Amino acid sequence: IGRPERLYTVTISVMAALKVLFDDNWTSVYFGLNLVWTGLLLGMLCHSARMLEVSWLAIAALLPLVLLSADFMYWPHYVLSDTFFAFLLMLAVWWLVFTLTRPNPSLRVRSALLSGALLLIGLIAFARPTSAPYAGSLLLFVLLLPLAVHRWRPAWVGVGLMLTVVVLAVAYGLLIQIYLETDWLGRSRELGSIARFAGEGRVVWDRPETAVEHVGGWLGYAQVFLVRFLTFWSPYAESFSVEHLIANAVITLVFLCAVGAWLTGACGSERAACSIALLVVGMSCAAAVFHSVVFIDYDWRYRFPVIAPLFLLSMLLLDRVAVRILPKATVGARRA
What we know:
By secondary structure, this protein is mainly α. It is built from 14 helices and no strands. Helix 2 packs parallel to helix 13 and helix 8 (154-180) runs parallel beside helix 12 (271-293).
């Protein structure tokens, strides 16, 4: 398990099984499975929203934005781990929504639901090397559930997350400076690459226009960390068309509005809804932090897994805000 390649175990096992079953046609079958996984992912997104009592109108208002998402339109066309991993992650979120919305489950049912969640977290952990922030967030969420996380005030959680990002940026800058000033560079291929990319100011892989010019030192490396964190949420490259940039901006704006509504407490005090909202925000921040440490892959490839959970958050918050501002008669008809 000491090598990152071991963390591809689940995905490689799926590919190996397809190669045994379909020989040279396995790539075509895998491409077909990408489409199946995408369809199931969207189905779980809608079903999760319905289990959280989100109206069909809120779902219908935001689901078409999937067609604007470069992630959904682009990555399923390739024989890569991305679509399968995004499916596994949404399956885990769906399972947790299912678990939290069960009315008074027995001890046996709770044990089965918990075992299923831990199994899915294990599959995610060994699906690809960048799984750490997702598997870690899901596991931490499961461990914190007995602490009534749905009662945590979103505004204070948001402040805590931002302070954590700043502290991590400073720690990253100091560690990179120490690493580069010692003879440790050759001891680890992975750590050596991380340090070298920080020294180069690299933000997005193979997108040199996104690089950060800095003077070095811990403050410069901390700057690279923070720029990566912000860039993770704002896909922009010189070669992107105007239509591509507008689509990215619309989706990012929807996600920002959802997080803003969450920070104001729009979820109310519902256990399932507030818990899942906290999970999505925390998991998304963990993914952004992870790639702030390493780098952002070409065309924001590794942002794909959090897109569906963020759509779920957006649907949930749109529904809860609508409940507050629409007349009661309209809300009643909308929820029918």
